[in-house]
Specification:
The chain has 149 residues and is mostly beta strands. Helix content is 0%, strand content 49%.
């Protein structure tokens, strides 16, 4: 095999750190009269999902509702800020923003959804958007505790 051919023996691992925006680096390897370059792109982590648990609740009950944001990778040093909103803030509220903190395996962040007594059942929608305009929404049905006569 020629000495410049790539084989499993010549592969190297490039370690990266989380970045707040996509970064590109050029890596050059040389030996003797041969030289080669490769471009490596490190993608910034972004929002990949939004879930609610439980998926059905009686509005105003003492049942806790937790929202979970999922990300494509760990947060960079500055964190990842996500904007949240509720379609019907009289039925349910969420924090205005949630920040994913930089930790080694932090791919999920949870937040509390406050919900209120509703006279009739309503299906609220919780919205989440990150700095790259990745957008997710989830429907959370709120049942009324009113018994119809």
């Amino acid at each position: 095999m020629p000495e410049f051919a790539i084989s499993a023996q010549n592969q190297h691992i490039v370690l990266t750190v989380p970045v707040s925006s996509n970064e590109t680096a050029i890596i050059t390897a040389s030996g003797g009269y041969l030289s080669t370059t490769a471009t490596v792109t490190v993608d910034a982590p972004n929002l990949t999902g939004l879930t609610m648990n439980p998926v059905l609740v009686v509005g105003g009950s003492k049942m806790a509702v937790t929202g979970t944001l999922s990300f494509s990778g760990p947060a960079p040093a500055a964190g990842i800020q996500v904007t949240l909103a509720s379609q019907y803030p009289n039925a349910a509220t969420v924090p205005t923003t949630v920040t994913a903190k930089p930790t080694a395996n932090n791919l999920n962040v949870s937040f509390t959804v406050n919900h209120y007594l509703v006279k009739t059942a309503v299906s609220d929608v919780i919205y989440a958007k990150d700095q790259y305009q990745n957008y997710y929404q989830v429907r959370i049905p709120l049942q009324s505790d009113q018994v119809s006569a």
